[in-house]
Amino acid sequence: MSRQLAWLALVTAGVLDVGWAVSMKYAEGYTRLGWSLLSLALLAAFVFLLGRALQALEVGVAYAVWTGVGAVGTLVMGVVLFGEVLSGMKLAGILLVMVGIATLKLA
């Protein structure tokens, strides 16, 4: 796998991680079958893509970027879908994570 394709797989895995977190919330402790099945499918998909990305990328950088994409995306979706409060501190944290992701990508 080329590095460019690995980065695409990595970012896609991060986005699927966000979907996984949201679907877990909707699954309500895995008591709702449809959401539970979607959650498990998203989990399998992002683990597969993360594993593929690790074939071409450094594990430390890849894991940090994947975690950052998932964390920022999940926080944003919590605000959008569940009415969670977005404070100034949370915004500052998102900005720091995004700067870190960009820095790792450029390194």
Describe the secondary structure blueprint for this structure.
Elements: H1 3-27, H2 33-53, H3 59-82, H4 88-106
Helix pairs in contact: 1-2, 1-3, 3-4
Would you mind describing this structure in some detail?
It is a single chain. The protein has one domain. 83% of the residues lie in helices and 0% in strands. It is built from four helices and no strands. The longest helix is centred in the first third of the chain and has 25 residues, at 3-27.
Structural features:
mainly alpha, flat
Helical coverage, percent range: over 70%
Largest sheet: none
What structural class do the secondary elements suggest? mainly alpha
Q: Which overall shape is indicated by the principal axes computed on the Cα atoms?
A: flat
Compute the gyration radius: what is it?
15 Å
Q: So how many helices?
A: 4
Strand content: under 5%
Into how many domains do the coordinates divide? 1
Mean pLDDT: 94
Task: Tally the beta strands.
Answer: 0
Uncertain segments are: none
Whole-Å distance between the termini? 19 Å
- How do the helices and strands follow one another from N- to C-terminus? HHHH
